[in-house]
Specification:
The protein is built from 1 helix and 5 strands. The protein is mainly beta and about 100 residues long. It has a single domain (about 1-90), classed as EutN/Ccml (OB fold (Dihydrolipoamide Acetyltransferase, E2P)).
Length: about 100
């Protein structure tokens, strides 16, 4: 699982049948600076994946997400999916190890 913050939404005019009605979010990865509050933007460097969201995450909300094969585990049929939210974080404590 990776921590991230929802930074946007995606609207599709067309989608594969298995994704009709799905909600998609853009998630900014959170590294040590974001988790500790040192980065006021709350979004780390790197690419921001588009993630299937079945949990109802709002913009600005911290989430946990998985990528790759793990993202397809909730489904009982093959699905072309790269990332999915798996948890909404109510709060977290980050204490870096020196």
């Amino acid at each position: 699982m990776k921590p991230g913050r929802v930074i946007g939404t995606v609207t599709l005019s067309q989608a594969a049948p298995q994704f009709r009605g799905a909600t998609w979010k853009v998630v900014g990865p959170m590294g040590p600076d974001e988790l500790s509050g040192k980065n006021p933007d709350g979004c780390g460097p790197g690419w921001s994946p588009v993630v299937l969201d079945q949990l109802g995450a709002d913009i600005g909300e911290p989430v946990l997400y998985v990528e790759g094969t793990e993202a397809t585990q909730p489904f009982d049929h093959p699905i072309p999916l790269d990332a999915i939210t798996v948890a909404l974080m109510d709060r977290y404590v980050f204490e870096p190890i020196d």
